[in-house]
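Practice problem 4.
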């Protein structure tokens, strides 16, 4: 009764159903500029499944939960949803609302930005990847806040794993005069503090420039190059412009130039790519040989598990399901088969040799 309608209701109030306008929450470098241009052009898009909107909207709920916990701590949380003017560059003005400011017992202020993330995304950040879109958003807010309080240069990006309730905190410093962001450290809820001192230059100017580029593309009615590769990047799977963006790409691909002289700057990268590919094959073969030798030794010892130095070894029987096409009719196979188009890179030596990846 309710289960079947709730996902449908979520599609009625999706963020990207609202008119496009530049704002800090979509300012980061990882946001697809082609998607933004479609949005700016008011191109009709395919709605994402309601379940997807539920997942996105859950982040707002987790944000409020996190704030409730902060209020019970020794930190003072204030200035929630305060409007901030982040400035104007390239004819683009950016304004937004901050999650809040927290003040510690030493009266040090920090901008607070809270995000609730799925497990997959959270794990990437836990392992050290800096969330560039969120970093840009934090720095734009700090840029605006420093007009009011020049001393407020620190921000806390606090992300929560919606699946496990694990937390990860990035401590960020932003210098407006240099337009430089420094990710000072990241701290996880296990109590581990990792120094990073990772510097990002032109962090806000690049955001303003991107919005200006979107505006120009929109005015010229010219789409920018796709920043993602067909069949490789998950970003396209969650984009409501996926269908229109890649429709007719095979014909477009056939019309691309051939036998082009590419920039000399990538020659060294091609050499590295080829060398790493060869080493990968060698390492994979060596890895398989060693595995077979270890397994043989365990067989000779009549062992299902055992010890080798500080290592515990176990042999397990695992099952893998597959489809036996011999049991299906040709028509059944055709119905079940799904064709996926993807792009692959081949490199051959001009002195001879077969094409290979």
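Answer key:
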């Amino acid at each position: 009764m309710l289960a079947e309608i709730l996902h449908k209701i979520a599609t009625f109030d999706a963020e990207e159903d609202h008119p496009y306008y530049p704002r800090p929450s979509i300012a980061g470098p990882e946001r697809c500029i082609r998607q933004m241009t479609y949005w700016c052009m008011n191109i009709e898009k395919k709605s994402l499944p309601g379940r997807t909107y539920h997942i996105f909207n859950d982040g707002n709920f987790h944000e409020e939960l996190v704030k409730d916990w902060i209020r019970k701590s020794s930190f003072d949380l204030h200035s929630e949803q305060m409007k901030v003017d982040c400035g104007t560059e390239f004819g683009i003005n950016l304004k937004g609302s901050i999650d809040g400011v927290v003040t510690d017992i030493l009266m040090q202020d920090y901008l607070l930005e809270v995000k609730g993330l799925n497990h997959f995304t959270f794990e990437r950040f836990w392992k050290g990847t800096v969330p560039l879109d969120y970093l840009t958003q934090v720095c734009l807010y700090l840029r605006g806040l420093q007009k009011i309080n020049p001393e407020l240069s620190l921000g806390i990006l606090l992300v929560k794993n919606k699946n496990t309730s694990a937390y990860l905190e990035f401590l960020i410093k932003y210098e407006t005069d240099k337009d430089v962001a420094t990710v000072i450290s990241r701290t996880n809820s296990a109590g581990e503090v990792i120094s990073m001192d990772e510097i990002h230059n032109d962090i806000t100017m690049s955001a303003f420039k991107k919005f200006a580029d979107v505006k120009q593309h929109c005015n010229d009615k010219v789409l920018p190059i796709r920043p993602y590769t067909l069949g490789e990047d998950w970003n396209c799977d969650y984009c409501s412009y996926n269908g229109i963006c890649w429709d007719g790409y095979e014909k477009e691909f056939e019309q691309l130039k051939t036998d082009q002289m590419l920039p000399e700057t990538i020659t060294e990268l091609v050499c590295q790519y080829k060398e790493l590919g060869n080493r990968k094959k060698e390492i994979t073969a060596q890895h398989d040989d060693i595995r077979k030798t270890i397994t043989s030794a365990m067989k000779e010892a009549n062992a299902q598990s055992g010890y080798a130095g500080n290592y515990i070894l176990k042999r397990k029987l695992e099952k893998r399901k597959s489809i036996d096409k011999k049991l299906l009719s040709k028509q059944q196979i055709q119905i079940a088969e799904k064709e996926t188009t993807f792009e692959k890179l081949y490199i051959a030596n001009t002195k001879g040799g077969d094409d290979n990846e």
